[in-house]
Design a protein that fits this description.
330 residues; 9 helices; elongated; binds biotin; 5-stranded antiparallel β-sheet; 31% helix
């Protein structure tokens, strides 16, 4: 825990009265002048803290930013969110930052989060609309024991985590469009971008990036009609930190289950949320377009598509169109 985390913990424990300067300086083992400097920094970050020479300090309000201390407040995980949370008011892309940190040896559990991305990236070279404090832009560093061949399972894993957390936190009916689109009312509300660093045939690290549209009330022309947000779907504001905590809790249980029991239980959840198996689909993959019936997903989350002549093709990545719940169009 950092000094600021401890100060916030004490202030939150004294929400209805005052935390004395004496208590803070004893708990933090620092002078009252040093405590005051930390309080000044917190105020600078948007915490409204009243100070009285006689009574001490009282927290009046916390900023609605995704500051590490806000995410950790009430977090019930043991790994995810308990290690380093790197916070950026603004960055190019949290996935790019995470890849740099992972290459430098950052451990599993490291999280990078930003209020705004100037070059947010989506799959297939697309950009990710990332306006300030209106979404969740977060990347997780994972060091899974997986072969390169098995690595695609990480996208369904993250998609299940995000979809289930989103449904539980908002009450929305959430679907997944294979492989990584998080959908509500037939429109995209979030997405996953998984990037791998590898050694020979083994995954060294994976960066799993999650983007969720939270308080976005309007989209650029090219996304209009295709994208939606929690605010548009529910007409209310939610706690972004609460939703991040929900995702961290889910990630911990889903990832543990995957390590313990393999991908079977995860794929059952993923198949339910995608409803892709058994559907007639059109695919764009590896530069060509074809159609067929999705007969199953393999153990790594790849599609097995059967054409009219009974030939089965395995599809690891690409764009798919199929009729799924929540949309009228295939
Ligand atoms: C997609 O649907 O194409 C994937 C979108 C992934 C967006 C997230 S936002 C956080 C992380 N940083 C990025 O640059 N991209 C991912």
């Amino acid at each position: 825990m950092t000094v600021r985390d401890v100060i916030l913990e004490i202030l939150k424990a004294h929400q209805d009265d005052w935390a004395s300067g004496e208590e803070l300086s004893v708990r933090l083992k620092m002078s009252r002048a040093a405590v005051w400097k930390h309080i000044a920094k917190l105020r600078n970050d948007g915490y409204e803290i009243e100070a009285s020479t006689r009574k001490g300090y009282q927290l009046k309000s916390a900023p609605s930013l995704l500051l590490p201390a806000e995410i950790r407040d009430g977090l019930k995980t043991s790994v995810w969110g308990k290690r380093d949370i790197v916070y950026h008011p603004e960055t190019a892309s949290t996935n790019t930052d995470a890849k740099v940190l992972a290459t430098q040896g950052a451990p599993e559990g490291t999280i990078i989060i930003a209020e705004r991305q100037t070059r947010g990236r989506g799959r297939l070279g697309r950009t990710w609309f990332s306006p300030r404090s209106q979404g969740i832009y977060i990347s997780f560093i994972i060091r899974p024991r997986l072969s390169l061949q098995a690595a695609p399972i990480l996208t369904p894993l993250a998609a299940v985590v995000a979809a289930e957390a989103l449904a539980e936190e908002t009450g929305l009916e959430v679907f997944l469009k294979w492989p990584n689109d998080i959908m509500v009312s037939g429109k995209k509300i979030g997405g996953i971008l998984t990037e791998i660093g590898s050694e020979m045939d083994r995954v060294d690290f994976a960066v799993v990036g999650l983007g969720l549209n939270v308080h976005i009330w309007g989209f650029p022309d090219d996304l209009e009609g295709k994208a939606t947000s929690i605010a548009l779907e529910t007409s209310r504001r939610i706690s972004r930190a609460g939703l991040v905590r929900g995702c961290l809790g889910k990630l911990e249980t889903v990832y543990e289950q995957q390590k313990r029991s393999g991908s079977g239980p995860l794929l059952t959840r993923y198949k339910k949320l995608t409803a892709v198996v058994g559907k007639e689909a059109t695919l764009d993959s590896g530069g060509h377009r074809f159609s067929g019936r999705v007969c199953d997903l393999d153990e790594h989350g790849a599609l097995l598509v059967e054409d009219g002549e009974g030939k089965t093709t395995r599809v690891v990545s690409g764009d798919i169109n199929y009729p799924f719940r929540g949309t009228a169009d295939p």
